[in-house]
Amino acid sequence: MSGWQTTNFILAILFLGFALFLWLRPYDGTGVPNTMYVKLISLTVLTIFFAVIFLIEFIFYLILKNNKK
After folding, report:
1. Which pTM value belongs to this model?
2. DSSP state, 27?
3. What pLDDT shows up at residue 67?
4. pLDDT at 69 (0 to 100)
5. Which of 1, 8, 16, 63 is buried deepest, with most CB atoms within 10 A?
């Protein structure tokens, strides 16, 4: 497995782990019960965070791909 694939695999495992943690915990960080609305907001924030990481990784990929030529 190349380093790029390993990084993506680890990021996918982290995303799934954090998503399960956010979905299954009974209370959020402030001690408020986790309602469906709070769960969806938490998952949206997590998804945006990983989308930013993916975007940065994709930009680096394009830069490295263009430098090989």
Report:
1. 0.82
2. B
3. 86
4. 66
5. 8
